[in-house]
Amino acid sequence: MTARTTARRSVDRFDREVLQYVLLRAPYGPPPSDNCLPQFGIPAYRFDERFREIIAGYLGHTLNAQERRLIFGCGQHHREVQLCATS
User: Fold this and answer.
1) Fewer CB within 10 Å, N side or C side of the chain?
2) Measured in whole angstroms, how far is the alpha carbon of residue 60 from the centre of its chain?
3) How does 38-64 read in b/e, with b if 16+ C-beta sit within 10 Å?
4) Is 20 exposed, middle or buried (0-12, 13-18, 19+ CB in 10 A)?
5) How many other CB atoms are found less than 10 A from the CB of residue 34?
């Protein structure tokens, strides 16, 4: 049996802004397509991909309490969106 090690990692500024934006927009649905490019520099179709990459990229890392709440909240939102999309 091998010991699992987790690296200490902090959520960078861009990732934090994307995650916070998704949580703020959650009650209103996905971000408007014309908002992603000027605000984040990525087109709307890429924004959703980047959001998913961010969530996946921090799994298994040691985060501080605030970052854990942010990732957990976005993960919950992601699961809810997935459930709605497959129902």
Assistant:
1) N
2) 14
3) eebeeeeeebbeebeebbeebeeeebe
4) middle
5) 9
Nearest to 81 by CA among 36, 29, 46: 29
Measured at the alpha carbon of residue 85, what is the angle toward residues 84 and 87, in degrees to the nearest 5?
Answer: 65
Model confidence, pTM? 0.74
Task: Find residue 8's DSSP bridge partners.
Answer: 62
pLDDT at 81 over 80: no
Q: How far is CA 73 from the centre of its chain?
A: 9
User: For the segment 39-72, what is each residue's pLDDT rounded down to a tens digit?
Assistant: 999 988 888 889 889 888 887 788 888 988 888 8
Q: Are 20 and 56 in contact (CB under 8 A)?
A: no
Where do the structural domains in the chain lie, given as residue ranges? Answer: 13-86
Q: CB within 8 A of 22, min separation 6: which ones?
A: 31, 51, 74, 77
